[in-house]
Specification:
By secondary structure, the protein is mainly beta. The chain has 2 domains: 48 residues, TSP-1 type 1 repeat (Single Sheet); 121 residues, no CATH class. A 6-stranded mixed barrel has the order 5-8-9-6-7-10. Strands 1-3 form a two-stranded antiparallel ribbon. A two-stranded antiparallel sheet has the order 2-4.
């Protein structure tokens, strides 16, 4: 029996389309085909949700994305590397929310890039960071951050990468620095 051998994953691509909730892709290839009854090769492509706020021509997208779109805090490192460092970027901020309702779809996703959704639990406090490029240069806010909402108003959010993972939360407060444990830290997209 000769098993299938695949390469390491490539880096994640940029978003498939600008100015939309879409996906990014990473791939790997087959180094050795399976033979003599060996198991089939694993998936050669993975997709994860993302949003780009700039068109391919470099102009800012105009539409506002509501509800709040969130992803794992780990995406921030990759995003900062790709963001254009022109020295005019504003420092971000965090918003604390209390999770009120969560759809069961957050628990039933089995892709490695959606495991972070398991940390979304009703009643927990989460921190969501607003950073460039989601931070709008004119308004100084991220879309869906709850700025201007009434006290105790229920606000809607959705996890990027799994459209069945969404829910409601209440804005607690805005912070200049994020202080949640990493498993409860997320990003506005």
């Amino acid at each position: 029996v000769i098993p299938c051998v695949v390469s390491q994953w490539s880096s994640w691509s940029g978003c498939a389309e600008p100015c939309k909730t879409t996906y990014r892709v990473r791939t790997r290839h087959i180094i050795q085909e399976p033979r003599n009854g060996a198991e089939a090769c694993p998936a050669l492509e993975e997709r994860a949700g993302c949003v780009e706020y700039w068109t391919r021509q470099g102009t800012e997208c105009k539409q506002s994305l509501i509800p709040a779109l969130i992803t794992t805090g780990g995406f921030g490192k990759a995003r900062k590397k790709r963001a254009a460092a022109d020295g005019k970027e504003r420092a971000g901020y965090c918003v604390e929310f209390q999770l009120v309702a969560i759809t069961p779809g957050c628990l039933h996703s089995h892709h490695s890039y959606t495991h972070w959704m398991r940390y979304l639990r009703e009643g927990h406090t989460v921190c969501v960071e607003c950073q460039h490029p989601a931070l709008d240069s004119r308004s100084q806010h991220c879309s869906g951050d709850g700025t201007g909402s009434r006290k105790n108003q229920l606000l809607h959010w959705q996890a990027v990468g799994n459209p069945r993972c969404k829910g409601t939360w209440r804005r607690i407060r805005q912070l200049d620095t994020c202080s949640c444990p990493s498993v409860h830290s997320f990003l506005f997209i």
